[in-house]
Amino acid sequence: MASLHFLLRPSSNPNPLALPSRSRPVRCANERQALFSRIAPVYDNLNDFLSLGQHRIWKRMAVSWSRAKRGDDVLDLCCGSGDLAFLLSERVGSDGKVIGFDFSREQLLVASSRQHLLLKACYKNIEWIEGDATKLPFSDCSFDAITMGYGLRNVLDRCKAMQEMFRVLKPGSRVSILDFNKSSKPFITSIQGWMIDNVVVPVATGYGLADEYAYLKSSVQEFLTGKELEKLALETGFSDAKHYEIGGGIMGNLVAKR
Ligand SMILES: C/C(=C\Cc1cc(O)c2ccccc2c1O)CCC[C@H](C)CCC[C@H](C)CCCC(C)C
Ligand SMILES: C[S@@+](CC[C@H](N)C(=O)[O-])C[C@H]1O[C@@H](n2cnc3c(N)ncnc32)[C@H](O)[C@@H]1O
């Protein structure tokens, strides 16, 4: 029986029906948690549709850059519905162990149900844990690799999340962080903004999730550029950090070595 381990705690969102207004930025962790729980039922299908399946390629690249290998203990932070955790699971095999970690129980429930539906033997090596990326419940130097897909931009205290990743990684191991690229090229920024305004938000509106997807644009604007991400990693203590632009510059991936 595959492992399902949620740290049980009451929902921290007192009123999940109180949607944030598009004019008001999503500022507190509870609001973000509620946002990701609301989009959980459609998240996977919308990613496939909106990226024309490209996000699967970007996620494979992120997992490959983590250098996770057979038998490793690995962590997928902000795992959501589990795409990167499933890819990691195939790489580390049944001798390895994958932890998918997220603060949205609804996302973890989707991940866990996919784990049971996909029926691959190696997926038994995945455990889902509910918690906050800025307070990881793991000992120092526990993991051989960490991945994080579309997570860091959404975490309120990015410095703390980076410090926690550094703490739980074994020396010599890598973290691979995939996200939208906050480009310094105005052309890329305009294309990205145009896609969100004219494709992503109109499609999401059809599911009653306009505000949730409009948040995407402001979150990319408030994110760090590739150079700033490299600087953050080095300041956190990582010995090496390199940011790669992918998907024509729309996406980026930071690889940092402890
Ligand atoms: C992978 C996608 C979205 C992930 C995602 C991340 C978030 O932080 C969210 C926050 C709140 C709500 C939703 C999300 C969320 O879904 C989909 C990305 C779609 C893009 C707009 C990219 C479209 C790309 C092109 C179709 C492909 C072009 C590639 C080519 C090589 C130039
Ligand atoms: C856009 S989704 C990405 C999901 C998945 N990694 C993927 O690539 O499809 C962002 C995820 O980060 C999680 N998240 C955001 N802030 C978090 C935090 N502080 N602690 C734990 N999870 C967080 C959300 O619940 C959500 O599932």
From TrEMBL:
UniProtKB keywords? Chloroplast, Methyltransferase, Plastid, S-adenosyl-L-methionine, Transferase
Under which name does UniProt file this protein?
Answer: 2-phytyl-1,4-beta-naphthoquinone methyltransferase, chloroplastic
Question: What's the encoding gene here?
Answer: MENG
**Under which EC number(s) is this enzyme classified?**
2.1.1.329
One annotated Gene Ontology cellular component of this protein:
chloroplast
Family of this protein: Belongs to the class I-like SAM-binding methyltransferase superfamily. MenG/UbiE family.
Known Pfam families for this protein?
Answer: Ubie_methyltran
Q: Does the keyword Methyltransferase apply?
A: yes
In terms of Gene3D superfamilies, this protein maps to:
Vaccinia Virus protein VP39 (3.40.50.150)
Q: Which organism is it from?
A: Vitis rotundifolia
Q: Name one GO molecular function term.
A: 2-phytyl-1,4-naphthoquinone methyltransferase activity
Q: Does the keyword Chloroplast apply?
A: yes
Under catalytic activity, the entry for this protein gives: demethylphylloquinol + S-adenosyl-L-methionine = phylloquinol + S-adenosyl-L-homocysteine + H(+)
The subcellular location is: Plastid, Chloroplast
Q: Which GO terms describe its biological process?
A: methylation; phylloquinone biosynthetic process
Provide the function of this protein: Involved in the biosynthesis of phylloquinone (vitamin K1). Methyltransferase required for the conversion of 2-phytyl-1,4-beta-naphthoquinol to phylloquinol.
What PROSITE patterns does this protein's entry cite? SAM_MT_UBIE (PS51608), UBIE_1 (PS01183)
